[in-house]
């Protein structure tokens, strides 16, 4: 399958609260190793909050799914800083269409520990949400640990409505309507 063209106008830069220049762009197939290194270097707590498991690295097949996207039903943005002239990943957010609900996508986000609280998660979501809306999704959902207060506060401030998870009392579900004006 040919690699889909990168969506236009989806690369941006911003300054973190501590003044570091960060570039945000769609993830690409060439980011596989970068993504694996990023996940491996997360703290165990951050990794658990993101993946709801104690995995340290992710299997090749999942890594491929994370980096080879159609930029339509599946989308991801990564945040990069220059370190010794090399682009280092410091955050990623993504959505994937639900197979049983074609107008709903599920999102996930994780920021490197040292970069949390710098406005990066907010900037990544400002990229991701309009793309989902423009691709016809009506609802974005996410699942978070019930004790993950930073995440619960974060998504609430973005307009998500929290509810109990239908299957697991340890989780909360967040829902953002995309088809209502913001
Ligand atoms: C939760 C998480 C994604 C937040 O990302 P972050 O980069 O640390 O958060 P930010 O600095 O962008 O965001 C929070 C700030 O943006 C602010 N913000 C949120 N919405 C905003 C808005 N509409 N306008 C302005 N600011 C806003 C928040 O109020 C907060 O401000 P504060 O720092 O002054 O309190 C991050 O901590 C993380 O990676 N956690 C571990 C992984 C995880 O839990 N993932 C969830 C499962 S998918």
What does this molecule look like?
This protein is an alpha+beta fold and 182 residues long. The chain has a single domain (12-177), classed as Aminopeptidase (3-Layer(aba) Sandwich). It contains 5 helices and 8 strands, in the order ββαααβββαβαββ. It has helices at 32-40, 44-51, 60-67, 120-134, 149-157, and strands spanning 12-15, 21-26, 74-83, 86-98, 101-111, 139-145, 161-164, 171-177. An 8-stranded mixed sheet has the order 1-2-3-4-5-6-8-7, with helices on both faces. Strand 3 and strand 4 form a beta hairpin. The radius of gyration is 16 Å and the shape is globular. The chain binds coenzyme A.
Cα shape: globular
- Share of helical residues: 25-40%
Number of helices: 5
How many domains make up the coordinates? 1
> What's the CATH superfamily, by name?
Gcn5-related N-acetyltransferase (GNAT)
Which strand order do you get reading across the main beta sheet? Answer: 1-2-3-4-5-6-8-7
What is the total tally of β strands? 8
- CATH topology name, in short, is Aminopeptidase
- Identify the CATH class: Alpha Beta
| Share of residues in strands | 25-35%
Q: Can you tell me the residue ranges where pLDDT is under 50 for at least 5 consecutive residues?
A: none
Radius of gyration computed on alpha carbons: 16 Å
């Amino acid at each position: 399958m040919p690699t889909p063209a990168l969506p236009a106008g989806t690369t941006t830069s911003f300054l973190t609260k501590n003044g570091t220049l960060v570039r945000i762009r769609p993830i690409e197939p060439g980011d596989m190793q970068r993504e694996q290194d990023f996940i491996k270097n997360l703290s165990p707590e951050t990794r658990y909050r993101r993946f709801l498991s104690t995995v340290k690295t992710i299997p090749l097949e999942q890594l491929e799914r994370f980096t080879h996207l159609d930029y339509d039903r599946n989308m991801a943005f990564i945040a990069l800083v220059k370190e010794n002239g090399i682009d280092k990943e410091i955050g990623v957010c993504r959505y994937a269409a639900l197979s049983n609900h074609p107008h709903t996508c599920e999102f996930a986000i994780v920021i490197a520990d040292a970069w949390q609280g710098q406005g990066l998660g907010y900037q990544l979501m400002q990229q991701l949400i309009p793309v989902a809306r423009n691709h016809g999704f009506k609802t974005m959902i996410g699942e978070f640990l019930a004790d993950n207060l930073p995440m619960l506060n974060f998504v609430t401030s973005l307009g998500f409505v929290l509810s109990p998870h239908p299957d697991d009392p340890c989780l909360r579900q967040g829902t953002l309507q995309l088809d209502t004006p913001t």
